[in-house]
Every structure is written in C-alpha cells, then in structure tokens.
Specification:
heterodimer; A: MetI-like fold; 2 domains; B: alpha+beta; 8 strands
C-alpha cells in the first residue's frame, strides 16, 4: 500500500483511470448524439492519462524548471503510443472529421480539468494517508456521478429517442438517435397513432381510475388496521403485525394462479371490477405496514388529551390522528398509486379484452413483430412520464414515505 | 385497612380496547384472508391434483336446437354433446317447452310430455359422446315465425360430471415431476445465483450512490430523483427499453460495441447461456439499487455528526471514518435490507418473464410456476412449484424475524 502513497505513482494511476473512463464516456456520448462510430483505445488513453496525472502534480520539492522538463520529456510516451499504436479516440470508418474534432474537444476538457481537481492537494513525493485518500475519494466521486447518471439516463434516452424515429431509420443505423426537427409534429406520429388507432387514451383512463380507486380502498382498510396495530393493546398484536409482514412477502405469482382459477369460475376475469377487487389486497399490507410505523411515531399524549376531553376512540382517530398524519397519508397514497399504475402481472393474466386493458397491459399487447418498435417505446414513455412527473414533483413525500416503512419492490 | 394490590387479569377498559382493536382490524383481516389465505390453501389443494388448464371447466352437456325437414318429416332436433372428451356425465336430462302453433306428432321414447313442456331423460353420456333427440311435429302458421319461436325457447340441461377441482382424487405426481431430474437443480441454481448476486449487487451500488449524495450541493434533489427512475418507472417500460437497447440485430448497445472494436459480431445478450442470466441479474441490480440507496441515505443522514468531528480530531482518515464509523452504523439497515431484498428478489417474476420469458437458462422458481401452469398447461405442477416457493419463503421469514426483531424492534 505504502508504494501508492507517493504523488508520482498515485497521480499517474488516477489520471490514467480517469482518462480511460472519459475516453469511453466521450465515445458513447458522441456516438449516441451523432450516430457516428468512435472507438476509445485502452493503451492510448491510459498513457495519455498517466502523463496528465504526472503533469498536474504540484511542484513539490522540485524546482519549477525540473517539473516542466520532466513533463515535456515524458510527453514522448503518449505521443509514441498515439503514433505507433492508436490515439486515445479514433473514428470508425466513415466518421466525419468534424465529429472526431468535437469528440476530442469534449475529451480534452473532461480529462484535463477534473484531473487537475482530483490531484490538487496531492504532493509530488511522499503523501500522507489523508492526502492520498482524499484524491482517491475525489476520483471515485467523479466516477460515481458519471457512472450512475449514465446507467440511469441511457435506457431512458433510448426509450424516448426510439419512440421518435421510424423502423427503417432504426434498422439502418441503430446508433443514430439524431432526430430530424424539420419533421415538426410528424415526430410524434407514433404517439398520435397510439392514441387514435390503439386506444391508448382509454387505457390511460382505465389505469388512472383503477389506481385512484385502489388508493382509496387501500386507505379505507389500512388506516383503521394500522391504528389498531400501532396504538391499541390487544392479545396477538405482535403476531398480527408479523403476519402482515409475512403476507407482504408472499410472491404474487403464487397467489396469481388460484386467483386466476377463482376469477375464471366466478366470471370476474376480464372485468375491471375484478381488477379493482384484487389490486387493493396487494397494497393493503404495504400501506398498513408503512402507516403503523408512522402512527407509532406520533405522540400518544395528544390522543390521550383528546380522550380525556371526552372524545371516543374513533373520534380521536378522525379529529386528531388523521390530520396529524396527512404527510404519511400522502406518501402512502402516492406509493400505492405507483404500485397500481405499474402493476403488470395481474393485469396481464386477468385481462384479455382490449377494451378493458390497463396501460401496462396495453403496452404488453404492443409487443408483437407486426407492430413497429417505436410504438412500443412510445407506449413505454406514455406509461413512464406521468408516474415520473408525479414522483419528481412530490419527491420529498415519497422519499420519506418509502423509508418510513420498509417497502416492497 | 386492606393493603392495595395491583389488579390482575384483564379489566373492562382493557377488554373494550381489545374489542375495538379487533373491530378495526376485522375488515382488513377479512379481505386479506379472502384473497391471500384462501388462495394459499387452494394452492396446496391444487398441488396434489392431476389438473390441467383445460380441466378448469367441469364437463357439461351442450345442446343445439333446430327445426328441420318439411311436411311429414318436420321435426325438432336436439343435438347433445359432452363438452369433455374424457369425463362422463351422469343423470343428463333435457327439458324444453313447445311454443303455441306447434303440435307434437310423435317423439323420442325417452321424453315425457306434460302439456306444452317436456323432459327427456338421457342418462349417462360418456366422454365425447353425442346424442340426438327428435320430436316430430306439425305446425300451424308461418314457418319462419314458428321456427323463430321454437328456437326462442331455450332448452335447459342438467347433468353432473366429475369436477376434478372439488373431488377427492389426489396424486403426488406433480411434486414428483417438479423434483424430477436435473431440471429442478438447474432452476434452483439459477434462482440462487439471481437472488444472491442481485441482492448483494443492489446493496453495494445503493451504498455507493448513497455516499455520493450524502452531502449538500446544488442539484442534489434532481440527481436523487433521477437515480430513482429505474425503480419508479413501470417494469414493462424499462424491460422493453432494455430489450431494444440490447437487441442482437438492431440494438444500440451492440452497434456501439462493434464500433468500439470490443466485439466483431453482435452479441445476443438475452439469448445465450450464461450471458442471459448475467444480464437479468444486472437488470435486477439496476432496477433495485435506488431502493437500497434511499434507505441507506436516510440512515446516513441520521448518523450523528459529532462522531465524525471527534474522529477528525483524532486524525482518522476518510477511509478509516467510513470503515470504522459509517459502516458499523449502517450495518443494521444493511442487514435488514439484505434480508428484505433477498426475499423479494427470490419472489421476483415480472422482470425475467419480460426480459427472456425464462429461456436461455434464466428460469427461476417463480418463472417455473408460470411455465408449468400456463405454457405446459399443467396447473397442478405449477401449484406444486408455488408450494415449494412458499416453503422457502417460510424458511427465510424465520431468519428475517430473528434478525429484524433485534434490529428494528418489531
């Protein structure tokens, strides 16, 4: 380990790793933005990064001249690698010079500037543990932000952009996500086709009112239950709250089979009523668990004061507990709405009639070879955007609610 | 003077409270047991039954009525059929009424008339059997209106067949089939790999993401919202986005890899062993790291900062602070998350079902339920797999309650 605690070893290593990361990221970003191929080179970027990591080290105990001479002298290594092997970024055959220049500009800025920041406090010679770890942490932080943003954003980007293109364009160059703005409203053709020819308006409405009804029914059942578990003393309380948790761990697929059989026999398959009956049951345990955690956190003294002043228990719940737990109710409602809106398995098994599809079931029906892919992706965007908007808008509620009770995924 | 003793037993106040509690809980218990407990019992019942998808409808007689022939040969014809090809139906009877304007001349001798109505006793129909009952009639009036009137009276049928769901015929064959051969062990291996790697991966990535966002900076809220996207978006939307991204023929990921020179030919990410299993596990990690991230972040923000200040004074380095201060503080939530995620990953169905449909070596136990019950149409075998899953779940929950009761005071 102590070998690494020297600026002239640690600096180039971090520089090399960062530069390679940025070479890959630049290639991906520019390729996805322009549709033209670019390839990073492992050796080229590592050599260049190691050199940069050396150059950015502070003077330390060297004189300024020494630093400059060494830096310039060592530039031979990346230059040689670039010349005889491959530069850090090269264009694939057919990539225009302009694209390569843009890529190099992005690459240069995104390596040189952060490496300087990462290595800012790293001395040239022997480092202390703090200095060394801090630059490693700065590197990891930068890497982490880029990594997580990339893995989250890329599928979403592909989803949106695919929905704006057409099948032949997609097959011709799968990398090309540029959109032709001159097409104007025609860009959104797959969306308008979904709403006119595929009935997505009605699917959305079905999903919406099924979700709202689910939220309503769930609260109706889980608020009294959660209150009883959280506040009232009775025999079997622990057993009950454990069995709630246990039920909330039973896999849906295990229940789906008998529910399918029972619904087939009772004629509830293919009906919205059947769906509205079954959704709340899947969410009641979650809601109960989340709410009882919140109710426990409320001061019991407030309620006792209410009891002393002559309110009954039910009146206490209605007039004291519920108003106090509005934030929790909001987050539970949001969460239940999300579950109902995203629910796929039951809708897929129980609904066959296209006039009664929920949104997720509607999207599943788009997954056929006859329907072009941009329709499928447009459907995915239609299902994702409302829930994302709701979530981002009320993010604080959700975060609190999700963490208030452990939550099902 | 009597000495005061503490009350023993339950007082009236306590009893009233317990009554109220059960009253409040009753609706929930009722609905949950109707939809969870009953199906669970049903699953156990069905898992011992030789039952296929086609047996869901019990065998029943089916009839078609028509007016045929002309003049002397004019007759009402009832064609009966047993809906099941294998099961017999016993005590089959047919009854119908004759509309006005129609006079019965002669009839099948199994039929008895009383006024305008008649009943025919057909007896037992074997599996796939067909029967024909003819009633010769003469009509008085317009043939078409009579025909409509005749066909307007709907004949009623009785008859009872064996209903496989409710009788007492049992078999152990379903379980034998589930545990039979190498298939079960492969399914178990896939399930364990998916569950263990998926759970640990989601935790590690969640921890990393939480450490990144555990500081105040501009845009922190936006970034946090963005990182939650995989978890919040409908599974069907993101699963299809992945399928399209990694499509072997026209997927962007393959095009990118080819351009970068990583591979020469397209990789079939979701269609090859063992790559498909790795991909579905990566998908699971990708989709659920936000959840662990949220929980870990919430716990991190509640850690007392004094401790870190003391550590700073003592000269602890950042890694030491993480290893000796943060991690022990997070151990509780990490172990709870591990158990919860382990159970839910074990139970996960939709993700794999949408990504690969259980092909290319990605069939987990839950996918196997669907595969057996609907793809092979053997509901009994599907239920048997479900029973196996449920038993595993019970085992896990014993662990869970042992640990969580300690950690969370449940």
């Amino acid at each position: 380990m102590s070998m690494l605690w020297r600026g002239y070893i640690c600096g180039p290593i971090l520089g090399a790793l960062w530069t390679f990361t940025m070479a890959v990221v630049t290639c991906i970003v520019v390729s996805f933005a322009t549709g033209e191929g670019l390839a990073p080179s492992l050796l080229g970027s590592l050599a260049m990064g190691a050199w940069l990591g050396f150059v950015w080290l502070p003077d330390g105990d060297r004189t300024r001249n020494e630093r400059i001479i060494w830096s310039v002298g060592l530039a031979i290594i990346p230059a040689a690698v670039f010349l005889f092997l491959r530069p850090a970024i090269v264009g694939a055959p057919g990539t225009s010079t302009l694209t390569i220049i843009i890529a190099w500009l992005i690459f240069a800025v995104s390596t040189a500037w952060p490496i300087e920041k990462i290595l800012r406090d790293l001395p040239f010679g022997q480092t202390t543990r703090h200095e060394y770890e801090e630059s490693v942490i700065r590197f990891l932080t930068g890497f982490g932000y880029i990594f997580f943003t990339a893995i989250v954003a890329i599928p979403f980007y592909v989803m949106v952009m695919t929905s704006l293109k057409n099948q032949s364009e997609l097959l011709q160059n799968p990398l090309d996500f540029t959109i032709d703005l001159s097409k104007g409203m025609d860009l959104f053709r797959s969306y308008s086709e979904l709403f006119t020819d595929f009935n997505f308006g009605s699917y959305m409405w079905t999903s919406f009112y099924v979700s709202v009804l689910t939220v309503f029914l769930t609260l109706l059942f889980s608020v009294p239950g959660a209150y009883a578990v959280a506040r009232l003393r009775f025999k079997g309380r622990t057993a009950f709250s454990r069995s709630i948790l246990l039920i909330y761990m039973v896999p849906m697929i295990v229940l789906a089979l008998p529910i399918y059989i029972a619904f087939s026999m009772a004629g509830l398959r293919n009906t919205i009523i059947g769906i509205v009956l079954i959704y709340p049951v899947t969410t009641i345990p979650v809601a109960l668990y989340m709410l009882q955690g919140y109710f426990r956190g409320l001061p019991a003294e407030v309620e006792e004061a209410g009891l002393m002043d002559g309110l009954g228990r039910l009146a206490v719940i209605w007039k004291i507990t519920l108003p106090l737990s509005l934030p929790a109710l909001a987050s539970v409602s949001l969460y239940v709405f999300m579950i109902a809106w995203n629910e796929f398995l039951l809708a897929f098994m129980l609904l066959d009639d296209p006039s009664k599809f929920t949104l997720t079931r509607g999207i599943a029906s788009l997954n056929s070879s006859e329907i072009p892919r941009q329709h499928l992706m447009a459907g995915a965007v239609i299902a994702t955007v409302p829930i994302m908007a709701l979530f981002l808008g009320l993010e604080r509620f959700m975060t609190k609610g999700l963490t208030a009770g452990s939550v099902k995924g | 003077m009597t000495t005061a003793t503490p009350p023993t037993g339950t007082g009236p106040l306590e009893r009233r409270e317990a009554r109220l509690a059960w009253g409040l809980l009753f609706p929930t218990i009722a609905i949950v047991s109707a939809v969870v407990i009953l199906p669970l019992l049903a699953i156990f019942w069905i898992s011992f039954k030789p039952i296929g998808l086609a047996d869901l409808r019990p065998p029943a007689p089916v009839v078609r009525e028509s007016l045929r022939g002309s003049d002397d040969n004019l007759r009402l014809e009832y064609r009966l059929r047993n809906s099941s090809q294998s099961e017999a139906i016993s005590n089959v009877t047919l009854s119908d009424s004759i509309p006005g304007g129609v006079t019965v001349v002669s009839a099948d001798d199994r039929c008895e008339f009383s006024g305008q109505a008649f009943t025919c006793d057909i007896g037992t129909m074997d599996g796939g059997a067909r029967e024909r009952i003819e009633v010769f009639v003469s009509i008085d009036g317009d043939e078409e209106t009579i025909e409509a009137a005749v066909e307007g009276t709907i004949p009623s049928l009785t008859g009872s067949g064996k209903n496989i769901l409710t009788n007492f015929e049992f078999t152990g064959e379903n379980f034998a089939r589930v545990f039979d051969g190498d298939e079960f062990w492969e399914v178990l291996y896939v399930t364990l790999f998916y569950t263990v790697v998926g759970t640990i991966g989601a935790l590690v990535f969640g921890l990393f993401a939480a450490m990144l966002l555990n500081k105040e900076f501009k845009g922190q809220g936006i970034l946090r919202g963005l990182y939650l996207f995989p978890y919040v978006a409908p599974v069907i939307a993101v699963a299809f986005a992945w399928i399209i991204l990694f499509d072997p023929f026209s997927g962007s990921a393959n095009a990118l890899l080819v351009q970068m020179g990583v591979t020469n030919e397209a990789i079939n990410f979701f269609g090859e062993r063992p790559l498909a299993l790795i991909m579905v596990t990566v998908f699971e990690i990708w989709r659920y790291f936000p959840l662990s991230f949220l929980f870990i972040l919430a716990r991190m923000q509640s850690i007392d900062t004094d401790m870190y200040e003391a550590a700073d004074m003592d000269g602890a380095s950042p890694f030491q602070k993480f290893w000796f201060l943060s991690l022990p503080q997070l151990l509780g939530i990490l172990s709870v998350l591990f158990l919860l995620r382990f159970i839910w990953t074990f139970n996960k169905f939709d993700d794999i079902f949408l990504l690969t449909g259980g092909n290319a070596g990605t069939r987990t136990l839950t996918v196997n339920v669907y595969e057996q019950a609907f793809a092979i149409s053997n509901i009994g075998a599907g239920a048997a797999v479900a029973v196996v899953i449920f038993c595993c779940l019970l085992l896990f929950s014993v662990f869970f309650f042992k640990f969580v009761s300690r950690e969370e005071g449940l």
